[in-house]
Amino acid sequence: MRSAVDNAVTERFKELLDRLGEKSVEDYYNPYKMFDWVDSIPEDVYWMSEDLISPYGTELVDELGVETMMRLSKWESINFYSMNVHGIRELLIEVVNRIHMPGFEIPSDFFHHFIGEENEHMWFFAEFCRRYGGKIYPTVKLELGSAGDADVENFLVFARILLFEEIVDFYNMRMGEDRSLHETIRQVNRIHHQDESRHIAFGRELVALLYKRIAGRLDETELRGIEDYLKRYVAFSLRAFYNPAVYRDAGVEDPMGFRSRLLADERRRAPELKVVRKPMSFLTKNGIITDPTLSIN
Amino acid sequence: MSTAINEVKEWILAKHAELTDIDPHLDLIENRLIDSLSFVEFVFLVSQLSGVEINVDTIELDDFRTLHNIEKRYF
Ligand SMILES: [Fe+2]
Ligand SMILES: [Fe+2]
Q1: Which residue out of A94, A140, A143, A160 would a mutagenesis test of the B interface target, given it has the greatest number of B Cβ atoms within 10 Å?
Q2: How many domains does chain B have?
């Protein structure tokens, strides 16, 4: 069976693609000239909004003290931008694999904008990491393996991209408008958020369409398997914000133990759920998720 | 088997209700007992139980393939 996006699209989707494409052209900017890269960002300030730092909401904040929390905010922000670099590389591979291939003719024009913009995002995130952190945190990756069924695989690829972009966007929005942060930090987050609002609009529409296509054909067990996988992906993404290498760089004692304590702390659940509230409610509204309970630790 | 490697085994079993035991030579990755979404946690668990600091960028995948290999390398 010829499987892809073209067979699933509606008029509404085509109109959205046209609109987003035009918007991409209008909003186009030269990233290599756009940013005010200051020589350095002071160390004795927060690099991340306080409520986004991983111990937020627990007594570990007081245990660490303000100085260590500030140091931690620096390394957690470098970790966040590093996650962006790696996440973008992975999503680019998937989209590059599909552009101008049979079944993807309709979204291919949009894919050109998407690929171009993501390449630029990857550049400015990497630039931030190298300039102000002197490194990009590495990632561990096992090959994802394929779902076997091409329709399911397409759905999962774009659902993962959407979840990743929505999670990142929560942080970007918060930091872009946080007046207590350094202007360079705010700018990187604000500009990324502007581009991502187009990608997220595209992603939501596409993921809903692709799901309709498989929902009519798969049985209940298979659909619950997909739900389960996506919830595990959300939990996996949230856990990536608790990085032992970051705790080590911030000078936290026993980084592994610190991570375990935070993950086990029930007071962390509320801030985590806030991060994924929008995509979880999108998935629930579309019947993709029937039970929104996540098991994060 | 050491206590530590038993803890590793119990951790996997807890995620797979369909299993009661795991052969020390079973390929955990090939058989999808560990997948891309659980691998990071798995590496952290081995690191925590063994006290060995593991650099994620220099990991040898084969060291994590079987309980036998993990025990040989880390415990
Ligand atoms: Fe992006
Ligand atoms: Fe994006």
Answers
A1: A140
A2: 1
Q: Domains in chain A: how many in total?
A: 1
Q: What residues of B are in contact with residue A139 (Cβ under 8 Å)? A: 56
Q: How far is the CA of B46 from the centre of ligand 1 (A)?
A: 33
A6: in domain: no
Of B31, B33, B32, nearest in space to B12 by CA: B33
Which residues from chain B sit within 8 angstroms of residue A245, using beta carbons? Answer: 56
Q: Is residue A1 part of a domain?
A: no
Q: Is the pLDDT of residue B45 over 90?
A: yes
> What is the per-residue burial (b if ≥16 Cβ within 10 Å, else e) of B31-51?
eebbbbbbbbbbbbbbbbbbe
pTM, to two decimals: 0.96
Is A91 exposed, middle or buried (CB count within 10 Å of its CB: 0-12, 13-18, 19+)?
buried
Counting as low any pLDDT under 70, the low residues of chain A are: 1-3, 144
For B31, the domain range is 3-74
Probe site for chain A from B44, B60, B64 (most A CB atoms < 10 A): B44
What is the domain range of residue A225? 11-285
CATH code for the domain of A33:
1.10.620.20
Taking CA atoms, B48 is separated from A139, A258, B74, in Å, by: 18, 11, 11
Does A140 sit within 8 Å of B43, measured CB to CB?
Answer: yes
Q: What is the pLDDT of residues B54-69, one digit of tens each?
A: 888 889 999 999 999 9
pLDDT digits (tens, 9 = 90+) for B1-16: 678 999 999 999 999 9
pLDDT tens readout for residues A222-249 = 999 999 999 999 999 999 999 999 999 9
